[in-house]
Amino acid sequence: MRFSGVEAVGRLRAGSWRGFKALDPTLPVWVGAALFLVFLMVLPLGWIFVASLKGEEGFTLTGYSQVFTESAFLKAIWNTLIISFWVGVIAVLIGSLLGWLVTRTDLPCKKMVRALVMASFVTPPFLGAFAWTLLAGPNAGLLNKLYRSLTGSEEALFNIFTMEGLIFVMALYSFPYVFSMIANVCELISSDLEDAANILGASKLRVALTVTLPLTAPALVGGFILAFLHSLSLFGAPAILGLPAGLHTITTQIWALFQYPPRLDLAAAFSVPLLVATMLLIALQKKILGRRGYSTVGGKGGQRRLVQLGIFRLPVFALVLGIIALSVFLPYWILLKAALAKAWAQPLTWDNFTLENFKFAFFQYGDTQAAILNTFKLGILTATVGTVVAALIAYITNRQLLWGARYLTFFALAPLVVPGIVLAVGLFLAYARPPFVLYGTIWILFIAYLTKEMPIGFSQAETTFKSIHPELEDAGRILGANRLGVLRDVTAPLARAGLIATWCFIFIGVIRELSASILLFTPKSKVVSVVIFDLKEEGQIGVIAVLGILLLLVSFLVILAVQWAARGEILATRE
Question: For the domain that residue 54 is a member of, what is the CATH number?
Fold first, then answer.
């Protein structure tokens, strides 16, 4: 009896499909990938909890007692909460304003504005913090020097080494998270309710406050929590701007506990509250974003008419460029100037121009050469292995290949709730003793990066596999191919653009990572972010600027590669 292709697929799914799953010789691959993911996540977190409860005399709560009673620790906690709250507020104000202007008004050059916001997102916060030390340092900062020359004042206009300065810089590199959420929501809101309010005589401002704002309320709250969490877990910016002023946050305090003599029990005990707070905030964010009572009206089918800014169009555009200048133009300019100048604080004249900083950084400074090699080696290795693992896990969960496959999503996304420096504490405790002695090698950084970047890799791969219909794979199974062969020969080619994007996003995350690296590096395993942090203490401004430009340039080249791959996929689909 002959069957059509559709009938064959139907029979396959109805009866023999279970046999395929049971007899699939590639089952060890899926089980191995699942166990590897669970092991990757459980081991470091388990060691954190064990170490936080373990003292010289066995089980103890002394570490937690010290954390919540000693004034230095309480001050660090309070500083972190205050800083993160105001970073969240400022990020929401800036991100929501730009998101609304780009999506709901006739603002000029919207694509350029989006690209510049992406540039702010890609910029490592520790690099932005360093750039602002050159711009707004109380003594040699160029903006303060300009202010003194124009006014004749002996006082500094800005002092970036304060809590206010730290909040300002951290907000500049947190608002893109809010911008992305608000822009996505505003693109879905229909203009029908706004039109009704206009008909009833409401002004544009009143419409925005009484109609648009309530519709975006879940995204605003979610954006605030995301910005709060981002600032909560940052190490580089608080260390560069806060420590010179004697200002500790939780992350810098954990780092200080690793200095000689190390207090691993206290570091673990201090990490647990940060971990728990992060988990609770992410759970709260999901609950808020999932509430049906805040659903937008209209959806994709509704018409969205742009608000005409009229005579305010150019002034508003100037305001937008002014905001972006603080996070992109000014920091990038000062880094480029410092890289090309003999004396960074002097005007960039022909006499002050030099390429020696590049020569010194790339060919003469030994730590830099080794760090660049380590960074790109780790970036390529982590991105490659991470893409493979993320793709396998996403395929398992999407196609439900194993019992309990849906629980793998939890483990794949779990690093989202683990700040980088907390993960580093767990990895140090787990891999600095038998049977897995990796501390002192580059492999512990590889494990840290692979764990930390798994959520973004899994999310991208899962989205890609969801867009590929399983019937294409069923046809390959009918012809005798096993699951792994179908994934390799059928699904992977169709998912090429998405997998390239996964690789690129993981690579960018690795080369800009500092919070985990700062606890896990050794002299033989330094990476560029750690060298930048160390060189600041030595005053090697030109070398830092060169390395910063290198990180930014590579990041943007990788983003262009993602866009090229996506464009190629669209063209292939049209053909």
Answer: 1.10.3720.10
DSSP 436: E
Q: Are 393 and 516 in contact (CB under 8 A)?
A: no
Q: In this predicted model, what pLDDT tens digit does every residue of 120-130 receive, in sequence order?
A: 888 999 999 99
Q: Is the pLDDT of residue 198 over 80?
A: no
What digits encode the pLDDT tens for the residues 466-495? Answer: 777 777 667 666 766 677 777 777 777 777
516, 448 contact by CB (below 8 A)? yes
Helices (H), 236-351: 236-237, 250-257, 264-289, 313-324, 330-340
In a domain, 115, yes or no: no
Strand partners, 353: 341
Q: 229 near 221, Cβ under 8 Å? A: no
**Which ranges of 341-440 would DSSP assign to H, the alpha helix?**
356-359, 366-399, 406-413, 420-431
Q: Is 194 exposed, middle or buried (0-12, 13-18, 19+ CB in 10 A)?
A: buried
Q: DSSP 3-state assignment of 459? A: helix
Confidence at 290, pLDDT banded by 50, 70, 90: low
Mean pLDDT comparison of 36-40, 137-141, 379-383, highest-scoring range? 379-383
Answer yes or no: are the C-beta atoms of 133 and 241 closer than 8 Å.
Answer: yes
For residue 252, what is the DSSP state? H
Distance CA 29, CA 233 (A): 34
Tell me the residue range of the domain where 406 lies: 14-60+369-575
> Is-contact 503 389, C-beta < 8 A?
no
Q: What is the DSSP letter of 295?
A: P
Q: Does residue 357 fall inside a structural domain?
A: no
Q: What is the pTM of this model?
A: 0.83
286: tokens are 């999901």
- For residue 410, tell me if it sits in a domain: yes
Give dist(CA 183, CA 163) in Å, integer. 30
Answer whether residue 505 shows pLDDT above 60: yes
**How far is the C-alpha of 103 from the C-alpha of 147, rounded, in Å?**
36
**Number of folded domains in the chain?**
1
Task: Tell me, yes or no, whether 416 lies in a domain.
Answer: yes
